[in-house]
Design goal:
The chain is an alpha+beta fold and 191 residues long. It has four helices and 13 strands. The strands form four sheets. It has a six-stranded mixed sheet. The chain has a three-stranded mixed sheet with strand order 5-4-7, covered by helices on one side. A two-stranded antiparallel sheet has the order 1-2. The radius of gyration is 16 Å and the shape is globular.
Length: 191
């Protein structure tokens, strides 16, 4: 495994080709207009919530889609993100890609962490909308667990609802589940 301080930065802006040349070392790397963003390891509450939400959505997901997490969405050669939760076209998923194109993504979801607030609340939703991803979910841990569901209404997302106890919606498919049960009480204040 190569330590972060041993990465050799390219002589130009970072591209997805540069990311592909790096070792698969579990480091979360994203690009925003050629700038490399390296995120810290997520907290236990973040990972637990992502796993529970993925399993919950997978239970009701239509067969033409697949729910996954931690998979890259390549918007352009200089812009790529790794949503905490992503719903993709099942045919695209059957090809076992390491990344998806925006047209293959139905929903991107981000869990807001203290280090990602501006990215998850402002930057990523705007760039996902610009790329044409139909749905965006922002999951907040503070001040209390809540899921903000949004739908693309060109050129931005419009909020469909905020759910802190029970989520019930018909979009992107009919689903209903307890938001409060996605994360054990002991983990809710971890961030």
């Amino acid at each position: 495994m190569i330590a972060a301080e041993q990465w050799e930065a390219p002589a130009h802006e970072w591209t997805t080709d540069d990311l592909d040349a790096l070792p698969e070392d579990g480091v979360r790397r994203e690009l925003i207009d050629g700038v490399l963003i390296v995120s810290p390891a997520p907290s236990t509450s973040h990972q637990t919530l992502a796993g529970m939400l993925m399993a919950t959505l997978a239970g009701s997901c239509p067969k033409e889609y697949v729910v996954t997490q931690g998979v890259e969405v390549r918007i352009s050669p200089r812009r790529t993100f790794i949503p905490d939760l992503v719903v993709v076209d099942a045919f695209a998923a059957s090809k076992h890609p390491r990344h998806y194109l925006p047209r293959e993504v139905l929903l991107a979801g981000e869990i807001v962490s203290p280090s990602s607030q501006a990215f998850d609340r402002v930057l990523k939703p705007n760039l996902y909308a610009e790329a044409g991803i139909p749905f965006y979910w922002r999951i907040e841990l503070e001040p209390a667990l809540a899921i903000h569901t949004c739908k693309l209404a060109d050129p931005h997302y419009r909020e469909l609802g905020t759910f802190a106890e029970d989520l019930a919606t018909d979009e992107p498919w009919r689903m209903s589940f307890s938001v409060a049960r996605l994360l054990p009480e002991a983990l809710r204040k971890q961030g």
